[in-house]
Design goal:
Radius of gyration: 22 Å
Oligomer: single chain
Strand content: 5-15%
Helix content: 55-70%
Shape: globular
Largest sheet: 2 strands, parallel
């Protein structure tokens, strides 16, 4: 059998193929990163099923989270399929459904409020509104570009992500603040959250600005990143509505199993529910 040497050109061809399949730029970037990591591991060796399994074990030994490993393996399996090396595909790791999450990873409502108030105290109105917009709508940080002046006026944003389109409602108080902010900056159309050069603010800048709030807001930095605001929205919404199907639609999830991850209780909450069962005599 001819040797299968993974080259930079092959990775580039895979990236082009992913583009033709209308994968998002961030997804393509992630796939490329995973493919290059595997290429580095190969160190010039020919690709075989045995080496792919060996790489899987290597990731395990490096204490990557199981979900992270499965994500990397999905990238490689996609590449193997494109290159016609289907016999090299490896199985994903089995994951038991998590029933509660660690408290040190979940942002609470009070911590969110402290972050918002700290941004206000620092005079960072843009960050203050970004925090509230993500948490009050449940959108992804990459979807902030759809929060436009037009959306603020109508009270609803049309969000397009991963070949899907959904309507996101903007509550009246947030709508009022967005319109006031846009008017102050002279924004009459297009994205509201922009840089000085009028380009949509990047997730990297948002992440960095959020981290800078942590010390003054007295919030653990490990909890502070944009996606945790989306998780907080999901938990609060589900606590009120108890409708996971509707929540999945609001969040733009194709599978309710994904939504379940967002609404699991913390360890303390889970323990308290067990205590309330009162089954010990």
């Amino acid at each position: 059998m001819q040797e299968r040497i993974l080259t930079v050109e092959m990775i580039s061809e895979c990236a082009i193929h992913l583009t033709s399949e209308e994968k998002s730029p961030l997804t393509i970037e992630k796939y490329i990163r995973d493919m290059k990591s595997f290429q580095a591991y190969l160190n010039g060796r020919s690709v075989t099923k045995e080496i792919a399994i060996e790489y899987k074990q290597q990731l395990l030994s490096e204490n990557y989270a199981i979900r992270s490993i499965n994500s990397m393996l999905a990238s490689l399996n996609s590449m193997f399929a494109f290159l016609g090396w289907c016999d090299c595909k490896v199985k994903a790791m089995k994951v038991q459904q998590q029933i509660f999450c660690p408290e040190e990873k979940e942002l609470t409502r009070s911590e969110y409020m402290r972050l918002v108030n700290t941004a206000k105290q620092q005079g960072n109105k843009r960050l203050n509104l970004i925090l509230q917009t993500i948490c009050c709508t449940g959108i992804r940080v990459g979807e902030l570009k759809f929060i436009t002046a037009e959306a603020a006026k109508s009270g609803r944003a049309i969000v397009r992500c991963k070949s899907k389109c959904r309507t996101v409602f903007i509550v009246k108080e947030l709508q009022k603040q967005l319109l006031s902010y846009a008017k102050k900056l002279g924004i009459t159309g297009g994205p509201i959250f922009v840089t000085r050069t009028k380009k949509p603010v990047s997730r990297t800048n948002i992440w960095r600005e959020m981290k800078n709030l942590c010390e003054q807001a007295n919030v653990n930095p490990n909890k502070v990143f944009p996606h945790n605001l989306r998780h907080l929205f999901a938990r609060v919404f589900y606590g009120l509505e108890k409708d996971i199907a509707k929540l999945a639609d609001i969040l733009g999830h194709s599978s309710i199993n994904t939504t379940r991850i967002y609404i699991i209780s913390t360890g303390d909450e889970h323990r308290q529910r067990m205590e309330n069962m009162r089954l010990i005599i």
